[in-house]
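We emphasize that the prediction below concerns an isolated chain of 305 residues; any contacts that depend on oligomerization or on bound cofactors are therefore not represented. The input was used exactly as deposited, without trimming of termini.
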Amino acid sequence: MTAPMADGLAAPARIDTLVMVTPQRAKLTVYSPMMRRTVRVDVLLPARPRAATPRPALYMLDGIDAGIYSGYSQSGWTQYTDVVEFMADKNVNVVLPIGGTGSYYTDWKQDDPALGRNKWETFLTRELPPLIDSTFEGNGRNAIEGLSMGATGALMLAVRNPDLYSGAALFSGCLDLGDQAAQNATTASVMTRGGNPANMWGPAYNEAWLAHDPGANIGALRGKPLYVAVGSGVPDWSMGVAGLASPVGGALEAAALACTRTFETKAEAAGVDITFDYREGLHSWGYWNGDLHRSWPTIQQALGV
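Result of the prediction step, given as a token string:
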């Protein structure tokens, strides 16, 4: 399968391999002309698709490690949550790109010695969707969801491509990059994975940063179903082991909470109605699994299913 050639691309994207691991789970390798390499993508399919009814797609983005702990064999979503079982009875194609460590799922200005060539926005918005829809009976309607780095990246993609996404759900991300502390946290997170953040949008908050700042551009999503969840930085002891996190889980979630509060102020000023879920919790998968469930009515509305 190949995607139609997009403006500025030397060749169309294509699916190089497609393996049906189960009737409801496909493993793909997709060649990206902009990335100049293949990208692993998993697609979850409904257990009982409605006959002859094309279905929408939900794109789900990972956190900053983006597949490291599975050796890039699967997304964190399938490794650490019940997304496979939860989505099985829903008439939706779930698209899970694997990789993108430290990339924020954006098009970097320059290739990075450690993180390589990152052209994720082009891949996720121009190259991949036509392939998904043509291969898995898609209807062209999409929503996007992400956690931590993937939440920032998902909302960034949504505000920059409002015609592509009908809604979004974001968990524990920094959604307002206008604050100096948020900018510092973003660049520091890239550095923790060996990357040089100056290769992303430049060394300081400039026009490129502004163009990618969800808080500064949230008006583009006015009228779309949107869901934002973030924890308090304090464990929810009722969850037991699932409510624990790494030693920095409290600090990371507290930082995400601060970003979320300033983002809410900007969303209100822009007249954008968002469902905010301020809950207990840390920066960890146990909480994001719950967010996946609670955000479903918003995504369901966005996808029209």
